[in-house]
Amino acid sequence: MSGAPDNPPGTAGLTQLGRPTAQPDSPDSAVLERVANPHPGLRYCVRFTAPEFTSLCPITGQPDFAHLVIDYVPDGWIVESKSLKLYLTSFRNHGAFHEACTVGIARRLVAELSPHWLRIGGYWYPRGGMPIDVFYQTGTPPDGTWIPPQEVQPYRGRG
């Protein structure tokens, strides 16, 4: 016995899980990893919530903050959560508009996972006194799949 745990099924070839991993310099350099769906053929919803997402304004360089909610119905693959976390944090030094970040994250996940369905809600805190919320989805949710509402309240300031 070597003392090292065996890799769980479907995790062979992962480069980040269970290892020290440096923060990616940019979203383009971030590696999103996937594992085989442990329930192929079953329709279910997976939700990731990133309540402290940050990026930079591409004009001023000031930080922007958002609460992201990502829902998807997997097909053959699920995203490995550590790689998703590293991908999302790679935006901290990345300058892009809210729309580019939100829709870009969704499109990258769709390209990597080919899910049955995906949606993202980007609930951005005010920039210039106005919150900008961005929503994207790939189509209608699959019939018979429970998709919970995102229920993130619009920004209300102090009132």
UniProtKB/TrEMBL annotation:
It is found in: Cytoplasm. Keywords: Cytoplasm, NADP, Oxidoreductase, Queuosine biosynthesis. Its EC number is 1.7.1.13. GO terms for cellular component: cytoplasm. Residues 1-29 are annotated as: Disordered. PANTHER family: NADPH-DEPENDENT 7-CYANO-7-DEAZAGUANINE REDUCTASE (PTHR34354:SF1). Belongs to the GTP cyclohydrolase I family. QueF type 1 subfamily. Catalyzes the NADPH-dependent reduction of 7-cyano-7-deazaguanine (preQ0) to 7-aminomethyl-7-deazaguanine (preQ1). HAMAP family: QueF_type1. This is NADPH-dependent 7-cyano-7-deazaguanine reductase. It comes from Roseomonas acroporae. The lineage of its organism: Bacteria, Pseudomonadati, Pseudomonadota, Alphaproteobacteria, Acetobacterales.
